[in-house]
């Protein structure tokens, strides 16, 4: 299973390789670089929504519950009206899977 941080590392590796290719081979069509620029913008937007602390808490749980008033929860999941899923992963950390990312 790939995680957001691994995808981010792969993206930056590909971006670095393509940067070197662009310097050594200027004959690659401009349309390719325009498409890659759009893809890069979307990738950076997705990566900015990723929180490494939530992933770390999920992989190495502190097993701390989350309290709202007198209600104590651990490991609960919520789905909102747009289809986004938010899961409590421990302590005060939550991971979110957005419906738009799945589409």
Summarize the amount of helix as a percent range: 40-55%
Sheet with the most strands, sense and barrel status: 3 strands, antiparallel
Q: What's the pLDDT, averaged over the residues?
A: 78
Strand content: 15-25%
Q: What is the tally of helical segments? A: 4
Q: Using only CA atoms, what is the Rg?
A: 19 Å
Main-sheet strand order equals 3-4-5
- Structural category is alpha+beta
List the domain count as a whole number: 2
The total strand number stands at: 5
Low-confidence stretches: none
Backbone shape: elongated
Quaternary structure type: single chain
Intertermini distance: 18 Å
Compressed to H and E, one letter per element, the order equals: HHHEEEEEH
Keywords:
two-stranded antiparallel sheet, 103 residues, 3-stranded antiparallel β-sheet, alpha+beta
Blueprint (SSEs and pairs):
Blueprint (H helix, E strand, L loop, with lengths): L3 H21 L5 H19 L3 H8 L6 E3 L2 E3 L3 E3 L5 E6 L2 E5 L1 H4 L1
Give an account of the 3D structure.
There is one protein chain. With 103 residues, the chain is α+β, with helices and mostly antiparallel strands. The chain folds into 2 domains: 1-50; 51-103, no CATH class. 50% of the residues lie in helices and 19% in strands. The protein has helices at residues 4-24, 30-48, 52-59, 99-102, and strands at residues 66-68, 71-73, 77-79, 85-90, 93-97. The protein has a 3-stranded antiparallel sheet. The longest helix has 21 residues, at 4-24.
